[in-house]
Specification:
218 residues, alpha/beta, Rossmann fold
Length: 218
Amino acid sequence: MKAPGKRDRPEPDLRSAGEVRILVIDDEPPMCSFIEEALASDDLVVQCVCDPAEIEAALNRQLYQLIILDYVIPGLASADLLRWVQEHQPDAAVIVITGFPSMDSALHCLRAHIFDYLAKPFTVDQLREVVTRCLVSKGLLRMSEDALRKAVGQAIREQRKARGLTLLQLAERLAGIPLADRARQELGVGRDPVPHRPRPGDQAGRPLPVGAIAVLRF
């Protein structure tokens, strides 16, 4: 299989919280090279171990944030491999790859709290997607401010359309009180402003600023 060239960063609109160390354990050198070239970037440092005799020493050498582990390595029991990983790298996420997928191995990985189970052969995109989800779930990759703003706006539009709400109706639900009353309260207009009713998640009962409605615009 053809490996891609090195990328400048893991995914568009995602930023690393720091250097991320990945260990690939697979007895097939071409597979190790494929994964290394698919993932290696300025933020992701990928190291590979192909010799079964060096696996335990590599696990004990330094800490990794992610381990990509071949489930079937000649001369080693899969249970022993997972046990070594859990003993030497208790905080690392694990993605299992295998050329011999089965229900038994999948259940074994599930019980061992493996992040994901990827059957060979897989594409570069499939590998990157799984790795990205894993690193995001651990807080090691974060969305840029611009990407987060777009994602929030998209989520709001989808929710509004799914519920058949106008922008004004959605704004009223988000604010907790009618938008007109909210505007009067924020601007100090009118004799009897409607008091804000604190809701779970509010910071010290602070009302939602009228300007926050700008996030709902297309």
